Amino acid sequence: MPSQLLRVSRCILTATLVSAPLLFADEPRSADSKTSPWKSDDIIFQESINDFALSPDARFVVWVKGEGDKEKDTRISNLFLSSLTEDRTVQLTRGSDNVSLPQWSPDGEWIAFISTRARPNAKSEKPDTASKQIWLISSHGGEAYPLTELTRDPRRVDWLDKDTLIFSAEEDPSAYEQAQKKRKDDSEVVDDSDHQPPVRLFKVSVKSKKVSRLTHNTDWIDHWASSKDGKFVVAVHA
After folding, report:
1. CATH architecture of 39-185+195-237
2. How far apart are CA 190 and CA 188, in angstroms?
3. Complete edge-to-edge strand list for the sheet that includes strand 156-161
4. Rounded distance, CA 233 to CA 188, Å?
5. Contact present, 108 and 59 (Cβ < 8 Å)
6. How far apart are CA 90 and CA 88, in angstroms?
7. How confident is the model over 129-164, as pLDDT tens digits?
8. Smallest Cα–Cα separation from 111: which of 98, 121, 101?
9. Cα separation, 110 vs 62, whole angstroms
């Protein structure tokens, strides 16, 4: 699917970029200026910077760099750490996966993020384990490790305290979904709210990796933010 989307994007961008110079044909150009039309790959594979997060002591900022992988015909992203007191940037993760939403622990020792990175024990995991998981990496460097083995992709993550994280995700597959899977029915009914799994809030312990449900809503939590003391969460429900 990503390859198909990229091919469609290239066709649209190529048509747009090829016709773009006609809009500026009457503008004067210097005799020594050398220009060339943009190509669709110039847009698709350009680098991007996203998801800035400031450290608790305001001395560092962690961010996500996105770029195109021409070999896999898709986009990848990695974590970078930049100092705000000196000219120094360190790449924290490497690979052809994706990372997003880095969050600092309250004591500044750890950075949590969501990623599609391959997990060390992936072969021994259940077949229905989600591709995205919550990962932790030391702010001082070193190898990242997965904190969760969820069956649903986490959508957002934050810290409640230095030992506990909160995240949102769809509820585990219901009996209806499990029955559909046994029948090998992969169809998706549009606006089937009766069977659409609710999006709830959960917490996970850094030490024990135990996941606990925090809310029992039957709708879908979209945007949310936790208070500084970790006692409250404000959320938008759909």
Report:
1. 6 Propeller (2.120)
2. 6
3. 156-161, 164-170, 199-205, 211-213
4. 32
5. no
6. 7
7. 999 999 999 999 899 999 999 999 999 999 999 999
8. 101
9. 11
